[in-house]
Amino acid sequence: MADYDYRTYWNRNIDRWGELYLDISHGHETLAGPAWYSSLYNGSIGRIERKLMTERYARTVAFIDNFVRPGMVVSDLGCGTGIFVVRALMCGAIVNAIDFSPTALEITKQNVLKHCPKEALSEGKVTYRQANVQADELPISDVTLAMGLTPYLTNLAGFMEQALPKTKLMFCLYADPRHWANRIRAVLPFLNVRRLQCYTKNEIDLLYSHYGWTLKDRQSFATGYIDLAGI
């Protein structure tokens, strides 16, 4: 699992994930393995994932609308296509768009220019940074988003060490190893098409406590849970 090439996967598929969030279509993603397997997966389980992605988008937008205020600094870790960068900018935030995929950052720039041209051309409103969030120093922010990130991290402790001391509030999605679907993936690894990394709630809570953070809200979602936590 740890040797899976996540960077290649995201460079190849990030534009397709944008389609999922925008509820345009599902079924274009290129997965590891033979072509027939990608086609079979996207035509079956992928249809369910499409609905879940739409819900995840709605929950994240609701969080941004409720917690982000003009002048706040927001870091979007694993910014992907930049849809949440755009939303935060629309709320008046100063945004750090951070991803390890250069393709993702380029797509984010295009979407910011398209939807927030004034902010895109204003110095200091949005910063783009290619980084490994498990090891590289992150910028200071008021709010951090990590809504499609931790299932692709193999060093969660390293991520928390970089992220938590640099922000006050984080909205973050985790995959739960105790969920029945992830239990099946553990027994039948060929079903884990994206090599998802799962973390128990106890693991997460211990890391929060280590950095003096408290869990403010936790909601079950899909095969995991979404946390709102902070200092």
Description of the molecule:
A hairpin with a 2-residue loop joins strand 6 (214-221) and strand 7. This protein is α/β, with parallel strands linked by helices and 231 residues long. The protein has a single domain, classed as Rossmann fold (3-Layer(aba) Sandwich), CATH 3.40.50. Helices cover 43% and strands 18% of the residues. Helix 1 runs parallel beside helix 5 (102-115). The chain has a seven-stranded mixed sheet with strand order 3-2-1-4-5-7-6, with helices on both faces. The longest helix is centred in the N-terminal third of the chain and has 23 residues, at 45-67.
Strand content: 15-25%
Q: What is the CATH topology descriptor?
A: Rossmann fold
Structural class: alpha/beta
CATH level-four homologous superfamily name? Vaccinia Virus protein VP39
Indicate the overall shape.
globular
What's the order of the H and E elements?
A: HHHEHEHHEEHEHHEE
User: Helical percent range?
Assistant: 40-55%
The tally of strands reads 7
- Tally of DSSP helical segments: 9
Give the strand line-up of the largest sheet: 3-2-1-4-5-7-6
**Rg calculated over all Cα atoms:** 17 Å
Q: Indicate the mean pLDDT.
A: 85
